[in-house]
Queue: 2 jobs
Job 1
Amino acid sequence: MAQVAVQHLDKVYQGNTHVLKDLSLEVASGEFLVLLGPSGCGKSTLLNCIAGLLDVEGGRIEIGGRDVTNADPSERGIAMVFQTYALYPTKTVYGNMAFCLRMKRKSREYIDQKVRETAELLQIGDLLHRRPATLSGGQRQRAAIGRALVRDAEVCLFDEPLSNLDAKLRTEMRIEIKRLHKRLKSTFIYVTHDQVEAMTLATRIAVMDGGKFSQISTPEELYDRPANTFVARFIGSPPMNFVEGRLSLRSGVRAVAADGTEFDLSAYGFASRPQEGQEVVLGIRPEHFHRPVEAAPSYATMLNIVEPLGSNVLCYCSLGKTEVVASLNPSDLEGVRADEELRLSIDLAKASLFDRATGLRL
Amino acid sequence: MRIAPEIRSALALPNRIPSKNPVSRVVIFLILLAFAVLFAVPLYVMIVTSLKSMDEIRMGHIFALPVNPTFEAWDIAWNKASSGFAAHGLKSGFWNSVAILVPSLLMSVAVSSICGYALAFWKVRFGNVLLSLLLVCAFIPFPIIMYPLIKITAALKIYNTSFGVSVIHTILALPILTMIFRNYFASIPLDLIKAARIDGGRFLGTFWHIILPLSPNILIVVAIMQITGIWNDFLVGLTFGNVQAYPMTVNLNNITQTQTGVRVYNVYMAAAMLTAIPPLVIYFLSGRLFIRGITAGALKG
């Protein structure tokens, strides 16, 4: 069990592309940290730096309290699972799993016992004599994870391990990985661009954007209280709705959109004192729209498109001059048709408010 | 160019070029036959001449089959023919060639494959400059650097030895072989090397356990190139060897050039055939592998 600490890490590619900018990150022992971000944000680069496959231009990396900034990958006590699996094609599954132990000159009995144990854990015991080319995608993924786990590494690194699998297998393997983490209790650092994977697996998520961390917190916090518009936009499907407006303090705190629609923010927990006339962006999750109950303030919207998903219905409506998507119960929509008026109330206590200029949460 | 079957079907290409017209098939057949004959006739003349006696050869019917086929000329060529220095036939030259070939083959493949591996996967300072230099070096004609090489080998006291000849063959082959290996290795996914590094494979461990098992095709291609190239070499053997260390080709030349008196064509032909046999055997044994090897880099998986 080991914690991982990254301090003021800088990575520059070929002298001019500054990929990682002064990153600092603490991963506690036994944590499941997901690095989440769009492609090109530097998340895989950060993982490769932690693994020691890339040299860093500045900063420090510690694993288990030991400075490993310049240590060889094999001496960092890490294991890694690659997106392409990177199984050795000429070796059997057994040979793949045994390779790192053979390089460490472990005894034949120890290797055999360890490989079989790990294979049982991953249910690939009957595939040990097969070559990677004869395995299916899911089996290869298991073999790749087996190769990583066989050495009892304290920190396991995953570089988008599920993105080459089809949707059904991905869901299965996701649960499998979560189960492994629960059982092994080692530190997992997992790179993905899939927010569903991030939300379901992580104990904490680090959202990255342009070589920096946008926000590092638990999945719930990230979803309910995004620190900036980037995180708000990135997390959640369908995405958060944004309404631009100004703050008005004349009667309580209100946000007024350009078309005059007013949103009462008296229940909103401001982090800083709101200011009259401040330009803001109001973020509302689709599921925070409801059919109005009596006496609650409600908004008249025009229902444009309806997407029934079974458990809920996505309604694309015009709220004033803004297009929003609301996720409603199917029963809420009885008697309502497209191109007709739909009255909706908004749970504004759960909304997010951002400064329009800086994009930061207010 | 080979096209994978799935691409073929995607492009709706026919599996074979249809030859509906019987006339075109006959024409293709005749052209192929003409070229086959063109290459086969000299070989045929060599074989029949080597099996004839001198009296029969003097009759001048070079295409006629031997009346009394005899392997006497082959025996003389192998055991007794005079090369001007000694009359031991070709066999000493054969063993000299083997003594030159084996070390130079091992050294050139070992050094160039490791160089190519380093250039393909490891951060080598000025690696790209080195690669460009290799490209330039690969095209420098041997005679230009012959004299400096003679001085160098003389200073190293390996001039006029068969090992010296092997060293020169190794040096001459390094640029092109290194590039061949580097380009082949460049097609191996980088993630494999990363995985091997995390698994604790060092520079040579990764090379031996991961890279070499993936490379039998290219090793066969390089081995065939080297075996035939070194066996057929004349100039390096002549300039860097000595009387005791001349390869078979120089031996053959001496036998055919320094005879006084009767020109024993049957012996010459037998000697030439004997010299050409090893590369021919290599081709016949590994021709299929060779074709597979040279297309291996073009195909994935």
Note: Chain B has 14 helices and no strands.
Job 2
Amino acid sequence: MIRRIPAIFALLLCVAISLAAATSSRWLHVPEKDHARSNPLPANAETQAAGALVYRDRCMQCHKADAMGDGHKRPALRSDRIRTASDGDIEWFLRQGDIGHGMPSWSSLPEAQRWQIVAWLRSIQ
Amino acid sequence: MLSTTFKGRMSMCGGLTICLIMLISTTAHGQDKPYFVTYSHDLEEPGNLEIETKTALARPDGGNNYGATAMELEYGTRAWWTTELYLDGQATSQDSTLFTGFRLENRVRPLMRDHAVNPVLYVEYENTSGADKTILEVVGHDGQADLAGPNGESRKEHQHEAELKLILSSNVRDWNISENFISEKDLGHDPWEFGYAVGVTRPLKSAASGHTCTFCAEKFTAGAEAYGGLGDTFALTMRDTSHYIAPLLGWQLPKGARLSFSPGFGLTDTSLARVYRVGLAFEFEQVGNWFHPSQGIASSKGGNQ
């Protein structure tokens, strides 16, 4: 039994590393087709203003008005994770949500409004 | 014609409820569609509480005008789990006003990703009297005759029922298409009863305007739903079942309020000829924070920036 302890410890370590890697590489789950998409809306002030209003109505209650989250479960949206993601990655994530971790799916929002949020998030990085 | 007493009772109850809710409402917008009977796979956002009144106005053949209201308290326990409490009541012209019971309901989303068709499992316990007229679902051989009796008699009947629904729902482009399969069982010796509800909705405009507005097209959602009974295990037949078709209109108001309206039309002799429904919903964001002062303060500071 004592000889098995290092093996069990190593297994737990592998699981922990895998979980950490999976968490930090969320965009790896995005299908290639979605990853390659770019925002079909023009990146102008009107689109960003509309995105800001949709953000205020739908997202601000969790991610806060400055999009910095609460430092705990509600992550900041001014971050490297957003900066390094493609437009398609962010739209896909809005559509899918992360239901197991508290982020609702926003597939019920019209697609144009999800792209408006993407445009606004780009503008605040 | 509605009697003056009846109209007075309805407007007083409605007015008091609306005033109370508006006093404490905060800005938040749910994802709900203007369905009255059909459920989509939208669940309440975690930590949010929605208070909604769903009122049905109708007059059954051989009965009096009535207004029945279900007050719904819907809480997002998790992103995949929503819990609801309904409190039902009704007022019947030239009769009485009474509380008709409560319902406890849970909706659980088993799949964590969005798919072409998204299932949600629905479980409900109902403790209502025979005087309940809210018509939140139609099952078995439900018909307008069930709604025509005097309150003094119908309130003596007690219903303890379990209801199971399979909710299937899809968002295709900007359309929502939802199908519900309903089975209901009186916990006594009555048979299983079955029903259905299907609905489709779409916002009038997809993209949001770049300015705050109340009457913009994107604030309105239109659609239709159809619902009815499918018999029971004693008589699994469409004979003597009720069926309705109902256009829907929803309006997203400022301060997290939502107004819905639906005129429903009966399609069989057993159905009510017409049933008018009005819904008014208010959503309260992150009510869990109200009981954790530090998080509540952080939240309100964020909201003021």
Note: Chain A is about 55% helix and 0% strand.
